[in-house]
Amino acid sequence: MYGAWPTKLLIADEVGLGKTVQAGLLIRQALLSGRAKRILIMVPRSVRPQWQVEMREKFNLSIPIYDGHRLTWYDSPALRGRLERPVDRTSSGTTNPSSSSPAT
Predict the structure, then answer these.
(1) Among 10, 18, 48, 76, which residue has the fewest nearby CB atoms (within 10 Å)?
(2) What is the pLDDT along the chain (104 residues), one digit of tens a residue?
């Protein structure tokens, strides 16, 4: 699937068929290889925190949640307040202030 990396990709399988693992592997490889600088992940609101945790634990990816106003990283309860910040929609500089990795 990665060999012909598309600019757009939709993974939409039934529950329990490994979408999170597929997405994590593709995202990590795309970022490490330089094929992608930013990636948009759209998941239902109810699973956003679970996705953040799984991307961090399984793939070492710190992925923020964008709620329409701010990016929020939930890497640990101790960091929650510190890592929330407003997003300037006119700027492309939306990176985690404690990390040099791109916003996803």
Answers:
(1) 10
(2) 556 666 777 777 788 888 889 889 988 888 888 888 888 888 888 888 888 888 888 988 888 888 888 887 765 555 455 444 455 555 544 444 444 444 44
Beta bridge partners of 66: 71
User: How far is the C-alpha of 83 from the C-alpha of 59, rounded, in Å?
Assistant: 20
Q: Which among 33, 23, 17, 34 is positioned nearest to 1, based on CA atoms?
A: 23
pTM over 0.90: no
70 backbone dihedrals φ, ψ, rounded to 5°: -150, 155
Token digits of residue 61:
């990816």
CA distance 81 to 12: 33
**Cα(94)–Cα(63) distance, rounded to whole angstroms?**
12
